[in-house]
Design a protein that fits this description.
The chain is α/β, with parallel strands linked by helices. Helix content is about 45%, strand content about 15%. The strands form 2 sheets. Strands 3-2-1-4-5 form a 5-stranded mixed sheet, sandwiched between helices. Strands 8-7-6-9-10 form a 5-stranded mixed sheet. Helix 5 runs antiparallel to helix 8 and helix 8 runs parallel beside helix 9. The protein starts with a strand and ends in a 21-residue tail after the last helix. It binds 5'-O-[(R)-(carboxyoxy)(hydroxy)phosphoryl]adenosine and zinc ion. 5'-O-[(R)-(carboxyoxy)(hydroxy)phosphoryl]adenosine binds next to helix 5 and helix 6. Zinc ion binds next to helix 4.
């Protein structure tokens, strides 16, 4: 029985997962509304709220799983990458819990969690597979030969796809985070109304989204405030279409180049309804089996951290007492 803790950004998360990948509980306390008034995540505020919420979130995860700490065999925690102050809260709590009970502790790479989210549940994906991870901080294509690690085949050279959604949302006057709002609004708009660039840098599998955001900025300036408000759904739909086109184009290329037979998506942007639909179409066309996690396993959560911990070496007491969070790489 694994108790996992995730506090890398603005969601305070704890989950109980069994060694054979059954999710017993997956609790997410979102601070989204707290940060919305600032138009983005304020790191110091996120850390303070993690501190306030973490005990209750862990209690809730244990209760929903119908277990107590006595039933837990190991603790898993996100070590990085993420906001350092936010990560520190999770790492300190995990070390404390593990140490008093002399339990093993598994430090987990947050991105590894997104990559292996589809190994959870009763239809787990098995390596080898390819995974597209698109979140607020990262966008990359990974090849997984063994679930304990992943090789990055291509990644964004500037903004992440989620960042493009959030910055675009802000330009359109949508509340933070822009991704879910843009998804919802796009359903009422015409994706062909505006022409936005599809940037495909180099001939590899890299991404670039900063030019797209700038194109939206210029378009909004050109047409003015009233017209932007009037045509917001069309702008959102056209902008979203450009992001999804790029993600699907690169995913197809990765599949064709590697000859992969299995594909998974992960990260907050994998919650996007148009991406889910389009990637399913592309995989069906290419004869590739696709794993699309439920939305709660796409956006940040602790169940995916438990998933990754099953493939990561545990540290024993007392060696993890010197474990540190890491803002960049895990
Ligand atoms: O994985 P995640 O929860 O946190 C990070 O590790 O960054 O991803 C958050 C990102 C945000 O940029 C948010 O706008 C985006 O995922 N997102 C979406 C949707 N839901 C969340 N983007 C597009 N469509 C969605 N439905
Ligand atoms: Zn994430």
């Amino acid at each position: 029985m694994i108790l996992a803790i995730e506090t890398s950004c603005d969601d305070t998360c704890a989950a109980v997962v069994t060694g054979d990948a059954a999710i017993r509980s997956n609790v997410i306390a979102s601070q989204g509304l707290i940060h919305a008034r600032y138009g983005g995540v304020v790191p110091e505020i996120a850390s303070r709220h993690h501190l306030e919420l973490i005990d209750a979130v862990i209690d809730d995860a244990l209760e929903r799983a119908d277990v107590t700490l006595d039933d837990i065999d190991r603790i898993a925690v996100t070590r990085g990458p993420g906001l350092i102050g936010a990560l520190l809260v999770g790492v300190a709590v995990a070390k404390g819990l593990a140490a008093v009970r002399r339990l093993p502790l598994v430090p987990v790479d947050h991105l590894h969690g997104h990559v292996v989210a589809s190994t959870l549940g009763d239809n787990p994906i098995e390596p080898p597979f390819l995974c597209l991870v698109a979140s607020g901080g990262h966008t990359f294509l990974a090849s997984v030969e063994d679930a304990g690690t992943y090789e990055v085949l291509g990644q964004t050279l500037d903004d992440a796809a989620g960042e493009a959604f959030d910055k675009g949302g802000r330009l359109l006057g949508l509340p933070y985070p822009g991704g879910p709002e843009m998804d919802r609004l796009s359903k009422q708009g015409d994706a062909g109304a505006f022409d936005f660039p599809r940037s495909l840098p180099g001939d590899g599998l890299d991404f670039s989204f900063s030019g797209l955001k700038t194109a939206l900025l210029y378009r909004v300036r050109d047409i003015g405030e009233d017209e932007t408000t009037r045509r917001r759904a069309d702008l959102a739909a056209s902008y979203q279409r450009a992001i999804v086109d790029v993600l699907v184009t690169r995913a197809r290329l990765a599949i064709e180049r590697t000859g992969a037979r299995r594909f998974a998506i992960g990260g907050g942007v994998a919650a996007n309804s148009e991406l889910r639909e389009r990637i399913a179409g592309a995989c069906a066309e290419l004869g590739v089996d696709l794993w699309v996690p439920p939305i709660a396993l796409c956006t940040d959560n602790a169940a995916m951290i438990a998933a990754a911990s099953r493939f990561t070496a545990a540290l024993q007491y007392p060696e993890y007492l010197s474990l540190d969070a890491s803002a960049r790489v895990a």
